[in-house]
Amino acid sequence: MEQELQITIEQLLSVGQLIDQEVLVSPVFELLKNFSGNFSKSVTLTFQFEADRLTKNQIASLVVMRRYNLRNER
């Protein structure tokens, strides 16, 4: 039986352990879903950012981190 998808998005207030000499130009958010395992269908995420906040030597990047639960599922 499939369950209803619930996604939560929360701003992380403590991100010091996530960055290593990077300069953040926006808040950091965590996206979580209410079940373990993969989605049954393809999912597309679209992000917007303010390019004018970057200096000419900076590039925008997106960091994706997977968290494992106690059973080692993604």
Helix content: under 10%
Q: Sketch the topology as an H/E string, one letter per element.
A: EE
Q: Residue ranges: pLDDT <50 for 5 or more in a row?
A: none
Strand order of the largest sheet: 1-2
Distance between the termini: 20 Å
Outline type: elongated
Count of extended strands: 2
Number of helices: 0
* Backbone CA Rg: 15 Å
The secondary-structure class comes to mainly beta
Residue-averaged pLDDT, rounded?
80
- What characterizes the major β-sheet? 2 strands, antiparallel
**How much of the residues is beta strand, in percent?**
15-25%
Please tell me the total number of domains.
Answer: 1
List the helices and strands and how they pair.
Layout: E1 7-12, E2 28-33
Antiparallel strand pairs: 1-2
Question: Your description of this structure?
Answer:
This protein has 74 residues and is mainly β. It contains no helices and 2 strands. A two-stranded antiparallel ribbon has the order 1-2. The chain starts with 6 loop residues before the first strand and ends in a 41-residue tail after the last strand. The mean pLDDT is 80.
Brief write-up:
This protein is mainly beta. Helices cover 0% and strands 16% of the residues.
